[in-house]
Design a protein that fits this description.
The protein is α/β, with parallel strands linked by helices. About 40% of the residues lie in helices and about 15% in strands.
């Protein structure tokens, strides 16, 4: 059923993130704390499940970008099934998203797709499959009651959950699958970490990654139309002077903050500044045309200091509105 907070939003759910593995293939490094794109892997995953009503991280407590609940399997290091059981005990929603903490490309849209697949198919679980078609049970959404049923059965059969593989848990579930070779990519080795770090710096990804990292670093939880801001920066740079671009976008952010800081406030401030930049460019063009006409007064297009109104770093024969 839709979330009570947002009738048109994703299915109401909690999230369990498993972050306490030994990372043997990383030489015992703190995998959840390894940074990709300036952000810890755990924080990247927490950002992807931000729609959850409650998020439980199964690991030793540490600083995180978002508030979470902490849980620990008994004994620590008893494996993913035991860790999932410990995390599930701290959830209350009828649906739970289960994630590992080493998914650099996981996004909120992927989590929503899993929830939609679970809700639409009537299955007990919806999980991603990787590039080779393999099930990824730690990138999945499940019916909480089904997980608890299987965990109880396994515990009774084996006298506990320690050391059991995840496939023993998922074997008893009715599953639907969602192929996604990118979001299912996990970081088990340093080569995987290097691959992830290189990919997010590619042209098609770097801007979104940078904006996400900056928002997390500054504690900003706000989705805005970055395309509109980039258009504003372009208009200010071309119509006024190149340094006007960063200064104008800063002033737009400041004005939006004073107006309440909503996405609508950002959009309105950007609209006003864009219109001003266009008017500025139009006036500059009109002045240049007037100076070029027979009988035109060139002084009308030249500031009092006698210097043409061009960007400081532009060639002497380039108008500020040149594209």
């Amino acid at each position: 059923m839709p979330s009570a907070q947002d009738p048109g939003g994703p299915v109401a759910h909690d999230a369990v993130v498993l972050a306490g593995g030994g990372a043997r293939r990383l030489g015992g490094a703190d995998k959840a704390g390894v940074r990709v794109g300036g952000r810890a892997l755990l924080d990247r995953v927490l950002g992807a499940c931000s729609d959850a009503g409650a998020t439980v991280v199964v690991a030793g407590p540490r600083p995180t970008a978002r508030p979470v609940r902490w849980a620990r399997e008994d004994p620590p290091g008893a494996g993913p099934v035991a860790a999932l059981g410990a995390g599930l005990r701290r959830t209350t929603a009828d649906t739970v998203v289960v994630l590992s903490a080493d998914l650099p490309f996981l996004a909120a849209d992927t989590v929503r797709r899993l929830l939609a697949a679970l809700d639409g198919q009537g299955a007990e679980g919806a999980l991603l499959t990787d590039a080779d078609g393999r099930d990824q049970p730690l990138v999945a959404a499940y019916r909480t009651s089904a997980l608890r049923r299987e965990l109880a059965a396994l515990s009774e059969e084996h006298g506990g959950l320690a050391g059991l593989p995840l496939r023993r848990l998922t074997a008893g579930l009715d599953l639907t699958r969602v192929p996604d070779p990118v979001a299912s990519f996990d970081c088990d080795t340093w080569d995987d970490i290097a691959t992830a770090r290189a990919r997010i710096r590619e042209h098609g990804h770097v801007l979104d990654e940078w904006i996400s990292a900056v928002k997390e670093e500054l504690g900003i939880d706000l989705d805005v139309d970055t395309g509109a801001l980039l258009d504003l920066a372009r208009d200010a740079a071309h119509g006024v002077a190149r340094p006007a671009a960063p200064l104008t976008t800063f002033l737009v952010g400041y004005a939006a903050g004073r107006a309440g800081g909503s996405p609508e406030a950002v959009a309105e401030a950007a609209r006003k500044a864009t219109a001003l930049a266009i008017r500025w460019a139009d006036e500059t063009g009109e002045a240049a045309e007037s100076a070029e006409k027979p009988g035109g007064n060139a002084a009308d297009a030249t500031p009092a200091d006698g210097q043409p109104d061009v960007a400081p770093d532009a060639p002497s024969d380039t108008r500020p509105d040149a594209g």
